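Hello everyone,

My group is preparing for a crystallization screen and wants a predicted model to guide construct design. The compound we'll soak is copper (II) ion. Before spending weeks at the bench, it would help to have a computed complex in hand. I've included the protein sequence and the ligand's SMILES below. Output in C-alpha cell form would be ideal because that's what our pipeline reads.
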Amino acid sequence: MAIRKDANTLTTAERAEFVAAILALKAEGVYDQFVLRHANAIMSAIHRCPAFLPWHRRFIFDLERELQRVSGNPNLGIPYWNWPSGGTTASMWNDDLLGGNGDAGGVVRTGPFRAGQWTIINASGVAAGPLMREFGQNGFSNLPTQAEINQVMAVTPYDRSPWDMNSNPSFRNQVEGWVGPNLHNRGHVWVGGSMLPMTSPNDPVFFMHHSMVDKIWHEWQLRFPNQGYLPAAGGPFGQNMTDLMNNTPSGPVGSRPIDVLDSAALGIVYDDAAPQPQPQIPVLVVGATPSQADIATAGEIDVFRFDVPAFGAHTMVTTGPSDTFMTLFGPNDANLEVTSDDDAGENFNAQITRNLSAGAYYLRIRLFSPNSTGNYAVAVRTEGTNPNPIPELIINGASVNATISAANESDVYRFTVTADDTYTIETSGATDTVMTLHGPNSQIPEIGSDDDGGDSFNARIRRQLAPGEYFARVRHYSPIGIGAYTIRIIRG
Ligand SMILES: [Cu+2]
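Reply:
Good plan to model first. Here are the C-alpha cells for the complex, ready for your pipeline.
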C-alpha cells in the first residue's frame, strides 16, 4: 500500500528515505528511464486529452513501485505537493527534501538535487547539465489556492468532445489547466526551468506535483461516483476507456485507462483521506408516482438510479413544462450508455421505452438547451403487469431469428438445462455479434463471453453446464452496429 502524504508534513526520517530512494533509482538508471518514458511519449496523446489523468496515474504508480523496491518500504508513497501551502518558503523546498529555487541563472545549488550531485538528461538520454528552477518567473507568481482547487473539483463531466484543450466544461481540462483557474499547468510553469519541457520528470518535484493532481482526481471520483471516465468509446484512438495508452509499458496493472480508474484497487491511500461525504444518487422506484425535480442551474445534469428486478419492457418518462433530454445507462454500469431521447414524450419531454434485463440503471436528465432552467417530473414504469417474457431457446430446437435494431441494443434469451452436459450456444448470419452467458438461475453472474469464436465473426460459447436456467445476452460488436442474426443452442 502506498501512503501518500503532504510533502510539507514528512518527518526527517521520511524525507531522508524518499531522497535516498530517488537517488538510488537515479544511480541504477531507472529514474532516467522514467524521464524518457514521459519525454518520448506523443505530447498530444498524454496531455490535452482525456488520457492525461490515467496516463500520469499509471506513470507515478510505476515510479512509486520502484521507490518501494529500492527502499524496502512497501508503504512508501510519493508525497504530494499541496500547492496552497507549497510556496517558496514551504519546508518541502528545504535542503533535506527537494532543495530550493535556482540561483540568478536558474541553477539549483541547494539540496540533494543540486548542481554537481544531480544531472538532468535530454529527450535522447544524454546528460544535459544541472537541474534548473526559477520560481514564479514565467508568468505565474502564485500557486493554485484551495478555493481554486474546490472550484475545479465541482466541474463535471470528466471530459467531453472535442477531447482536447478546448473541452468545456471538462473536469480533466480544468485540472490540466487549459480552462478555468489552471492547476497542473501552472505548477509546471511556476517552478519553471527543468519543469517546462517534456523532460520535466528530471525534477523530482514532478512526481509530487502529479501526486497532487492524482489526489484531486481521486477525490473527484469519490465525490461523483456516477461520473465515470470518458470517452467510453468513440473518441480518438488511445483515449477511450479500453484503448492502450501511448508509451505505457505492460506492468503490474494494465495500460488502459480502465485499468487505473480505482486508486483504492491500486493500493493508494492519502494521509488526509477522511471519508468523503458522498452524494446519494436519488433512487426511482419502478411503478411509483413521478418524482419532482428541477434543473436549477443552466447546464445542470440530474442523475437517478433505478433497479430492474427481472427482464421486461420499461418506460422512463419525463413530464412537465421543460424540454428535457434523457440518457439511459446500465445495467450495473453508470458509464455504459444504452440510449438517449429528446422529444419522444409529451410536450417536448424525453421518454424511453426499452426491454431491460435485470440490474441497476442510471438516468441522466438535462434540459435540451444548456442555457435553460426549469422543473420536471420523472418516473419509471413497467409496460403492463406482465412484462415481455424473455424468449426461450429450446435445446436442440429450431434457430431463432432476431435483429439488433438499434445502437447499443442487447437481446436476452433464456434456456433451461436439465442434464449436466456440454452445450454450445452460437449465433450465425452476417452480423458481428458478441455474446455473454449468465447463470445458473440468475442474469447477473457472467460465466462466459465470446466475440468471434463462431463462423464469420459470429459468437460461440461451449460450456459444461449443470442443471438450471441460463441467460444468453447478444449484442453487436460495435456499439452503433445493427443487423440480423439467428441463435441456437445444441447439446454437445
Ligand atoms: Cu506529463
